[in-house]
Amino acid sequence: MADTATPTVIRRADYAPPAFLIDTVALEFDLVPERTVVRNTMRVRRNPDASHAAHFELMGEQLEFVSATIDGTPHSAVRTHAHGLSVDNVPDAFELTLVSVCNPAENTTLSGLYVSSDNFFTQCEAEGFRRITYFLDRPDVMATYTVTLRADKAAYPVLLSNGNLLDEGDLPDGRHFARWEDPFRKPSYLFALVAGKLVKLEERVRSGSGKEKLLQVWVEPHDLDKTRHAMDSLINSIRWDEERFGLELDLDRFMIVAVGDFNMGAMENKGLNIFNTKYVLANPETATDTDFANIEAVVGHEYFHNWTGNRVTCRDWFQLSLKEGLTVFRDQEFSADMAGGATDEAARATKRIEDVRVLRQMQFAEDAGPMAHPVRPESYVEINNFYTMTVYEKGSEVVRMYQTLFGRDGFRRGMDLYFKRHDGQAVTCDDFRHALADANGRDLAQFERWYSQAGTPRVTVSTHHDAAQHRYRVTLSQGYGDAAPAARDTQKGPLLIPFALGLIGANGADLPLRLEGETAAQGTTRVLEFTQTEQTFTFVDVAEKPLPSLLRNFSAPVIVEYDYSAEELAFLLAHDSDPFNRWEAGQRLATRELLGLAARAATGASLQLDDSVVNAFARVLTDETLSPAFRELALMLPSETYLAEQMPESNPAAVHTARQFVRRRLAEALKNDWLAIYERHQTPGDYEATPEAGGHRALKNLALAYLAELADPADVVRLAGAQYDAANNMTDRSAALSALLTAAAASDGRRAQAALEDFYRRFEKEPLVIDKWFALQATQRGSAQRPVIDIVRALMSHPAFNLKNPNRARSLIFSFCAANPAQFHAEDGSGYAFWADQVIALDALNPQVAARLARSLELWRRFTPALREKMRSALEKVAAQVKSRDVREIVEKALG
């Protein structure tokens, strides 16, 4: 199923409007797994704003052409080719009917129309619709759709498509039909159909204007008891979008469908969202607190796309962040409001910290590698490879900066103007920026550079206190450093960086801030508009030398360089009023210590942890004024992957040694405190999926994880075993199993093995839980006697493992390659050889999934020489054998 075409570079500069427009589409499906017949009738006209074209070119892949008619008359001037169909001799306006055949049963790419668990599903973004029928498959071609589905009624009793149901009924020979109409113009990537044996949870709600709306969550029958949280998340999303942005659900019904075979998290098809089961199904026994939170966020994300992506869509795929970055920002704000409303800054900060951790660990690494690209890319070979952290997460940060500059009210004014101008259109990132600028009376020409420059900016800070004049100067300098080679190719000048800061006095209190030239102080946090390569801001009435609190709430996606001492970081950790920067101080303190220890570990030198670090952790651990959720995040060490990326040469083994040394030292030094925290933060009674209860579980289970590091784990094995046996929720059960696996490295491991076997027996009928079972084993520590790669290879032969299922592949193979760096980067290169074999195998089945796995080695040049050579050999093996353009683009860019 792989696309073996010679890669062609697509460039943003080459964009041209389509030569033809399609106003209406009427699709008829006769659904048969091995041979689905599609009849596609389109009203077509020449585009008055485009150059004249001699042929009507349509895209198509893996289709069998049957016939074509124009205005009811058979048309023979049709040529099929490798990438679609050419129709010659067409008038300026016409009705074209094409009949074609596809084979959903054999579609392992899960793009287009495919069969999963004997049901039909679709995934059309970005270019899957061309696997269903011949079409002008590009986002700036928007049409209204009427869809008729016909299928065997016993096998496929439920027939769904976009929009509103017009009619349904029985047909001869045990078949039936359903006819759907979507009254809103949409691009083909938003088309969807579902057919199969499904059941629903259904509710009716009233919108803000009083209209009744039908909400449905469709799943396989055995999963109906796991749909309540998804429905509640959908209702909350609808209410939030009305209240925060004045955006109302525009269809009579809104449907979510869950499928176990899905390449992504979910898809925002108009009115018929198709989800990976991972982001729909949840009950206390099978889903963790993280799963519940992720479901809420992803349901929100896809619903919010109804306006930011569907009603206003992308002109071309280079504008992908126009919908994805904006909608990630909206789902992050939604989750923060669900946790703490608009006023609980501590709860909102916890969400902010979680989001920034992901950005810095994954997107910053992307910015420093061969796949680095601007938020609005300039070129691509395979668009599926550009559903990236940069487009989504950095794109969200770019949107957040508008709100930081203009405030919530100013941002809302910009959004209102954006929809007023562009509802029903396919537009660009520049159109969004112009709406925000015009609504707030600002010139944002310089802000455009955030969309066109790659790399992570670095802001160097220097300060000077004039005690005699009571003045404090803060000088900011911006650049990219040597770690972002892509930035050198795209840099067009300094960025507009909203840089939030505060000044803290010796007593730990924030100082009032008055800039030179102002008549009065204005608050204790100021957002400085940093627009020059170097810029100095002078604060007056500063009698004592303060300690700067820099980039509060992470006001811009940059790296801040300021030489804090360890004592200053400990002071910020204890006193900073900005929750994000309080967390950040602890992370800086830990990172500095861990990198120093890793450097010593690399040379075989002895390791010792400074008591000041232990004391700083102890203060946070025992500070009951801090929320449990915040303490859990503050006490979590930076990841091994993040730490390795901060080294001049990444050395995963040295980082692992250093990090495990610190974990054990903190476990031993604070053992009694950890035990007290473990007991104090139990959550007896029925499970509650609330942020407060989740915070208690998170801190308790972090304590258990630290205690599992003790040299003598016998007591902890008993503690974790008891928690495993008594658990009434998946959060506690999986945390206990993880602790048992950790402790197994220092014990005989029999209790951990017994728990693994019990876990599988309990949940073997729950695919998402078995994914956790695979992932826990793939990410365990392992030992010299039993390396994890041997465990992973053995699990690939397990009856429950299926390489064709993306969730299962991710749970085992991706978890090992991406989330177990010490084992994956084994000195013998066995992890890289395993990676190469799996990329090649997946490439033949599902190039999108294979390409995601291929990215595990994209930063190979940054590792130690011995590892580097083995990585290059693995990359060259993959480059020589894969066929899809998805994977070829990744490995060829990595090899350079």
Automatic annotation (TrEMBL):
CDD domains, alphabetized: M1_APN
Molecular-function annotations in GO: alanyl aminopeptidase activity
The protein's Enzyme Commission number: 3.4.11.2
Domain Aminopeptidase N-like N-terminal per the UniProt entry, residue ranges: 120-190
Cell membrane among keywords: no
Domain Peptidase M1 alanyl aminopeptidase C-terminal: 567-895
Homology family: Belongs to the peptidase M1 family.
Protein name stated in the entry: Aminopeptidase N
Native source organism of the sequence: Paraburkholderia acidicola
Gene: pepN
